[in-house]
Amino acid sequence: MNKYQVGAETARMIALRHPWVLADRFTRKWSGAKTGELALLCDEQHKPLATALLDPADRVVARILGPPGTKPDAGWFRNRLKKAQQLRLQAGLEETDAYRLVNAEGDGLPGLTIDCYAGFLMVQLYTPAWDSYLPVLLEVLKEIFSPLGIYRKLRPQETHQLEAKGGGKEYSRLLYGQAAPVPLQIKEHGLLYHADLRAGLNTGIFPDQRRHRFDLMQRVKGKRFLNLFAFTGAFSVAAAAAGARQVTSIDVSARYLDIARDNFSLNRLNPKRHRFIVGDVFAELSRLQQKGERFDIILFDPPSFSTTKKSQFSTRGGTAQLVSATLPLLEPGGLLISSSNHQKVDMTAYVKELRRGALESGCELRTIYRSGQPEDFPVPVSFPEGNYLKYVISVRD
C-alpha cells in the first residue's frame, strides 16, 4: 500500500473523523496516485493517519475507510452492512419496503449508497474508486439480504458516454438476479406507489421524504392542498389518502403526472376527483391567482435546478421568488411547506430565502417545524455536509 502525505488541516479533519480529503497543494503532489487505489495517508511527520480510497481526478481526492490497516475485503463489507441493517430497525419502516439500506458516509461506506425497493437493491457508486470492489460487495449483499435482484445506477457521465457512442440512454444495469417488474409496486406506510428501477435519473419515489409524507397526512384532512413540482405525486397521494378535500398537482412533465394518476388509482383514490395540471409552476401560480383560487396547504419540493421554456429555477435565489409567488394563494393561517435537497444550501441560508420571499410578498411567516432526512439516512456528526435535506413548515399570518 502506497503512502501519501496530507497537510496539517487535512490531518486535523481526519482526527475529527471527517470522511473526505479535498484537493489541495499537498494532494497535487501525489505522484502516480490512481483511481481506486487503497492508500495509507500520513501527516507531515510521516505518522500514519488513515486508510483511504483514492480518486485523484475528483474534488474529493480520497475517502476515508478507517484507521491504518483497514482492508475492504468481504469481512469488512459484511461488518459494515450488518451494522447498517441493525440501524434500520430504528427507522420506522412498518408497512414500508422502500428505504435506504446504506447511506454512504453515514454507514461507513463513503461515496456508496444502496436503496431497497420491494426486495430489489439499487447500488449507486458516486466515485469510480469503488468500481473494482463491486464484485465482493455483490457477494456479501447476496449473502446477507438474499435480494430478488441487484441493480447498479450508472453515474451521469457513464450514461452520457454510452449515449455518445450510439447506444440508448442507459440509467441502470441488472447485476444479479431477476429483473424487477416495470413498473415495480412499492409500499410506504401502507400506501402503494409505482417505481422504475431501469429508466430515468430517479426511480419515481424519493425515500428521504417518507417521514414528511406521513407528517403531511396528519395535517391535511378536509384541506385544499396544492403540490408544486409534484413529480409522480407521492405527496399528493398521501394527502388524498388522508382525506384532503381537494388535491391539485402541478408539474411541467405530463409523463410524471400520468404516473401520479396511476399512483392514485393504485390506492383506490379516484384521480378524477382531483386536479393534475401540466405546466410551468410560476405561470400556473399566476393563473391560479388571477382566478382567485386559494389553498389551505401549499407544498413545494423543487429540483435544485431546472429549466423550462418559460422560466429557470435554482434553489439559491429561486426559493425566495417561489415563496413570493406562492403566498398570495395561501389562506391566512394556512401552511406553507417548503423543501430542498440542495446540498450546498444549509438550513440557516434556506430559512433566509423563505424570509426574503415573505417580505417580497408582504406576508408574515412563522416556522413551526423543521426537519431533514429520516433515520435510514444517517449522518456522522463529523460530516455536516451530509445534512442536505431541508423541510420547513411555516404558518402564514
What report would you give on this structure?
- The protein has 397 residues and is α/β, with parallel strands linked by helices.
- The chain is built from 10 helices and 21 strands.
- The strands form 5 sheets. Strands 15-14-13-16-19-21-20 form a 7-stranded mixed β-sheet, sandwiched between helices.
- The relative contact order is 0.09.
Topology (elements, then pairings):
Blueprint: E1 2-5, H1 8-15, E2 20-22, E3 38-42, E4 48-54, E5 60-66, H2 74-87, E6 98-103, E7 112-117, E8 120-125, H3 134-145, E9 149-153, H4 156-164, E10 172-177, E11 184-188, E12 191-195, H5 210-217, E13 224-228, H6 234-241, E14 246-251, H7 254-266, E15 275-278, H8 281-290, E16 295-300, E17 305-307, E18 312-314, H9 315-326, E19 330-340, H10 347-361, E20 365-371, E21 390-396
Parallel strand pairs: 1-3, 8-9, 13-14, 13-16, 14-15, 16-19
Antiparallel strand pairs: 2-5, 3-4, 4-5, 6-7, 7-8, 9-10, 11-12, 17-18, 19-21, 20-21
Helix pairs in contact: 2-3, 5-6, 9-10
